[in-house]
Design goal:
77% of the residues lie in helices and 0% in strands. It has helices at residues 4-13, 17-44, 48-84, 89-92, 102-128, 132-151, 159-173, 181-191, 194-208, 230-253, 256-266, 268-276, 283-313, 330-336, 339-354, 356-360, 368-425. The longest helix has 58 residues, at 368-425.
Length: 426
């Protein structure tokens, strides 16, 4: 047994966890300030006419990874809230005991928060100092590193979780088997990141064609330009995957609800392709014919999606149960028992569903800061959607388990009554 003096000596050598946490926060703040200072000085060193063009290119390369980082942070918050309540998310998503906790998710997002802005700062610094080759190497090496980490077969960086993610993505892309809850849950999240995939496609296209840190991509009709047919194809792909999942569910279950859900995802297709037609038709034709069609299809999709979120995904049918679930849990009591939460969630969901047209429409994507903001808001909308969607699924599982127990309880009650009756006769 250690003496008090030895314990004090060891405590003096090894700092406390609170001290280490403060030290890490201080280092993080110093790093963040340094990145902002170097990046700002690098941008100000450029000429005014080149600055906006260059920032748009930087946005295209790093916007996808920054938004993915935000999504990982928020997913960690989701898991933390679930862990504080009685919502069994591990059972819902069919996770084993080695699944990542919110702490491990936050650890991953912390490293992503450090690596991605550091690469972006290096890109700005090298380009502003005339070293174009080193600048071009920054996003290329970052994308290669991310891809290698995801597909690495070695038992590092949470191999089982990476394998589960890749396997689920494969099942989403090719829904040839029965659709599980994790399959369509992740597919729904991917629909909110369609703009991220579109920018990712354009970034990889430029890297393949060696257009990084150049302005060769500015021609609208170039292979990686804003008129490329690949843009609407990538935008619509997550919605088509979700559409085919619904059709597969109807084949397996024969439930008509899945057909109405498939119809919801099909309404996204005309919004995307009608918007892309602006670059391929005469301006008068667009103004007089295609633009009204695009606006109509946008309204239909936004309102249909909003209704489905409220009535189906969250089980607030007809707004008759806005302020409570049919079977509330601890999570409901913690967050959803207040009226203002419901008003906020329903109102913000409606507004952000309507802004969907901006972030997915080809002819509205030139203001990259606005598009980035709206895409980030869509990710926040999906973040709050997850709380209600997961708890609704947990309520269904709880009701199913209770319904299975009720017949057993009824049989036991009858047996007890018979025993009591027999004893009375005797």
């Amino acid at each position: 047994m250690k003496s008090p003096s030895s314990q004090l000596h060891s405590a003096a050598i090894f700092p406390s966890p609170a001290f280490l946490w403060r030290f890490k926060v201080l280092l993080f703040m110093i790093w963040g300030f340094s990145c902002c200072k170097i990046g700002w000085d690098s941008v100000m060193r450029m000429s005014a006419d080149l600055r906006n063009l260059f920032l748009y290119e930087v946005f295209l390369y790093y916007n996808p990874l920054l938004l993915v980082t935000l999504m990982v942070w928020l997913w960690g918050v989701n898991l933390w809230v679930f862990s504080q309540s009685n919502v069994g998310y591990a059972k819902i998503f069919d996770l084993d005991q080695n699944h990542l906790t919110h702490k491990e998710i936050w650890k991953c997002s912390t490293w992503m928060t450090i690596i991605v802005p550091t690469s972006m700062t290096a890109y700005l610094y090298f380009y502003s100092n005339g070293n174009v080759s080193l600048a071009a190497l920054q996003p290329v090496s970052l994308y290669i590193a991310v891809a290698m980490v995801l597909i690495s077969p070695f038992d590092i960086f949470y191999l089982s979780s990476r394998y589960l993610l890749l396997r689920t993505l494969w099942r989403i892309a090719l829904p040839l088997q029965a659709i599980s809850f994790p399959d369509f849950f992740l597919a729904d999240i991917l629909t909110s990141m369609a703009k991220v995939f579109s920018d990712l496609e354009r970034s990889v296209c430029r890297m393949v064609h060696r257009q990084v840190a150049t302005i060769a991509w500015l021609e609208a009709d170039s292979v990686c330009g804003s008129h490329s047919i690949a843009i609407p194809l990538v935008l619509v792909f997550p919605y088509l995957c979700r559409l085919f999942q619904c059709l597969r569910q109807f084949k397996d279950t024969k439930e008509k609800t899945t057909l109405f859900n498939a119809l919801k995802y099909s309404t996204a297709v005309p919004v995307i392709f009608l918007s892309a037609l602006k670059y391929h038709v005469f301006p008068d034709r667009w103004t007089n014919f295609y633009s009204p069609l695009w606006l109509l299809s946008s309204v239909v999709n936004s309102l249909y999606s909003f209704y489905w979120d409220i009535a189906r995904d969250w089980d607030l049918s007809g707004f008759s149960r806005i302020f409570k679930f049919s079977r509330s849990s601890m999570l409901s009591n913690m967050f959803y028992g207040r009226k203002w939460v419901y008003f906020w969630v329903i109102g913000s969901n409606l507004v952000l569903r309507c802004t969907w047209t901006y972030k997915l429409s080809s002819h509205l994507r030139h203001n990259y800061l606005t598009v980035f903001t709206i895409t980030a808001l869509e990710i926040l909308r999906r973040f709050q959607w997850i709380f209600f969607r997961v708890e609704n699924e947990w309520n269904k599982i709880s009701r199913s388990s209770l319904d299975q127990l009720l017949p057993m309880t009824g049989i036991q009650a009858e047996e007890e009554m018979l025993l009591e009756t027999n004893n009375h006769i005797v």
